Amino acid sequence: MAEVHALDDYLLAITLLITIAYQLFFFSIAFSLKFDKLTDFAGGTNFVWLAIITLSFSGHHHARQIICSLFIMLWGARLSAFLLFRIIKTGKDDRFDDKRDKFFSFLGFWIFQMIWVWTVSLPVTVLNSPNVTKYDQPAFGTGRDIAGVVLFAVGFVMESVSDIQKYRFRSDPANKGKVCDVGFFKWTRHPNYFGEIIIQFAIFTIAISPSAYNYVPNPSYSAQYATILGPFFLTLLLMFVSGLTLQERPGAKKRYESGNHWESFERYTKRTSILIPFPPRLYEPLPTILKRTVFLEFPIYVFDPAKHADQSKVREREAEEGNNRGQDGLADGQP
């Protein structure tokens, strides 16, 4: 099959245009119908389409290209299917409560999703591009390939299983408000994020082999290494934009102010690593400096009730609890 040269020989422009068109199509539906159920589906399936298109354009189907393309397709398909299933069950996405009726605010999320899809796809896009496939490649099975496959398997199992574990835990009425500390969540507070990060670095590790073993000269060599932007962008996104920063301190603040299993949650955060899986018995006694550095629990994630809580809400809750206890005592015939 002949390779396809579309706009540029790294397929960057054509994949960007496809991503923009794909996301704008789903945005028009979501905004017009006020319909939340397609948002994450559009993101995950976009990865699948970019992998299929760039692989079909390459004209050279080396085993490494096929495996990297299949890996990102498998990840994107599973992610979009799970998130679609979850939103169908929950009915709506709370993230958009303040954006759904505001055109530009809502569009802003979709533009960010375009950037996310295009950037994270870069290792596979460039691997499948004519400027890389025109050169010979090392036979699949190098040390990097094996390491990448193992890392992908670990990350995929951790992300997919932890998603199911958390969904099943929260679906049980008996666990309402409780801290999810089952399965992988015993070892890390965010196993799904850790798995997702490992997946993207695994794909990059495999994709970079042609340049790592000096089969590909410059400028394609530099272009391949530049695609590490994809996994790094995802890591920064999960750690500092849409992941941990939106869940850690805000989640703790909400629990503390409402008194929703605060004691058990506080205990859980002290004994459980924020991201990197680690045995709880070993993590809890570690010095704070190690937790704040090696284990990535940066100060921006830490909740301090004295600094971050709305004390008026705490007092209102405590007063209400006191009144309820008094009424219960009167009902029991106690003075």
In short:
This protein has 17 helices and no strands. The protein is mainly alpha-helical. Helix 3 (63-90) runs parallel beside helix 7.
3D structure, described in words:
This protein is mostly helical. 67% of the residues lie in helices and 0% in strands. It contains 17 helices and no strands. The protein has helices spanning 12-33, 39-58, 63-90, 103-120, 122-127, 130-133, 143-171, 191-207, 209-212, 220-226, 229-240, 244-258, 262-271, 280-283, 288-292, 305-308, 311-331. The radius of gyration is 24 Å and the shape is globular. The termini are far apart. The model has no long low-confidence stretch (mean pLDDT 90).
The average pLDDT is 90
Percent helix, as a range, is 55-70%
- The CA-CA distance between the termini, in Å, is 88 Å
List how many beta strands DSSP finds.
Answer: 0
Shape: globular
Total DSSP helices: 17
User: Which value, in Å, is the CA radius of gyration?
Assistant: 24 Å
Model regions low in confidence, pLDDT < 50 over at least 5 residues: none
Query: Which structural class best describes the helix and strand composition?
Result: mainly alpha
* Main β-sheet description: none
Proportion of β residues? under 5%
Give the ordered list of helices and strands: HHHHHHHHHHHHHHHHH
Please outline the helices and strands.
Layout: H1 12-33, H2 39-58, H3 63-90, H4 103-120, H5 122-127, H6 130-133, H7 143-171, H8 191-207, H9 209-212, H10 220-226, H11 229-240, H12 244-258, H13 262-271, H14 280-283, H15 288-292, H16 305-308, H17 311-331
